[in-house]
């Protein structure tokens, strides 16, 4: 019997023929996690939230059901899609890449593997009967038939060469709060022994925003 972890998924459009061979889509197997992470680290579009460590956090802390997909050609990973099936009263029933992450979506080295992973995810969404499929692509790609979520956004900018230039680039109110902290001997402390203090401040801040706080196990 063939190894079930290496078979091509029974989806209508999971093999995209190229000059160097077909793209095959398969679920992530435990022994493939090292290769998955190496691939993500090597890609400019890869992010922390696409690594298998974040997958384990979501599985352990929130019991989310992972449905991760790999794209391979001739046994080599050429694309990955971390994917989770979520079903609750807040989001409904959805496939999301990735929940509780700024970035996610498809990480692929070429268009053929990206398209194969997207089509596989769409086929899975149809089979599972979800309300929607959400891909948080870092590169900002928007596929035909998908709708942008304008509620959230992100930004980036160049890092100035000195602390003085960083300070001058900040809003006036922010600079005032920094000076106030310095005058009151504000200290920076590092280390896991600070986790209890951090979590208490985190929970207080989330409460002020009216947002439910994550359990301490997620920290």
Return the average pLDDT rounded to an integer: 84
* Percentage of residues in DSSP E strands: 15-25%
Which regions are unreliable across 5 or more consecutive residues at pLDDT < 50? 1-19
N-to-C SSE string, H for helix and E for strand: EEEHHEEEEEEHEHHH
Helix percent band:
25-40%
Separate helix tally: 6
CATH-wise, what's the superfamily of the largest domain? Gcn5-related N-acetyltransferase (GNAT)
Please tally the β strands and state the result.
10
- Dominant shape: globular
The SS-based structural class is alpha+beta
Q: Mind telling me the C-alpha Rg?
A: 21 Å
Total number of domains: 2
Largest β sheet strand count, sense and barrel closure: 4 strands, antiparallel
Distance between the termini: 42 Å
Q: Which class of the largest domain in CATH terms?
A: Alpha Beta
Structure, briefly:
The protein is α+β, with helices and mostly antiparallel strands. The protein has helices spanning 33-42, 52-62, 111-128, 163-169, 172-183, 195-208, and strands at residues 17-18, 21-22, 24-27, 65-66, 69-73, 76-81, 84-88, 92-97, 107-108, 132-135.
């Amino acid at each position: 019997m063939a190894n079930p972890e290496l078979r091509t998924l029974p989806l209508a459009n999971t093999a995209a023929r190229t000059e160097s061979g077909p793209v095959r889509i398969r679920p992530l197997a435990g022994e493939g996690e090292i290769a998955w992470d190496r691939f993500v680290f090597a890609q400019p579009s890869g992010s922390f939230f696409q690594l298998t460590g974040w997958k384990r956090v979501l599985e352990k802390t929130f019991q989310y059901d992972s449905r991760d997909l790999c794209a391979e050609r001739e046994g080599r990973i050429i694309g990955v899609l971390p994917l989770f099936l979520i079903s609750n009263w807040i989001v409904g029933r959805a496939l999301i890449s990735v929940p509780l992450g700024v970035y996610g979506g498809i990480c692929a080295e070429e268009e053929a593997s990206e398209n194969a992973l997207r089509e596989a995810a769409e086929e899975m969404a149809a089979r599972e009967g979800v309300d929607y499929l959400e891909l948080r692509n870092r590169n900002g790609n928007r596929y035909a038939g998908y709708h942008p979520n304008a509620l959230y956004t992100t930004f980036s900018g160049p890092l100035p060469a000195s602390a003085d230039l960083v300070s001058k680039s900040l809003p006036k109110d922010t600079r005032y709060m920094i000076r106030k902290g310095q005058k009151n001997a504000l200290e920076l402390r590092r280390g896991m022994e600070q986790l209890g203090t951090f979590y208490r401040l985190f929970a207080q801040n989330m409460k002020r925003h009216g947002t439910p706080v994550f359990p301490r196990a997620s920290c």
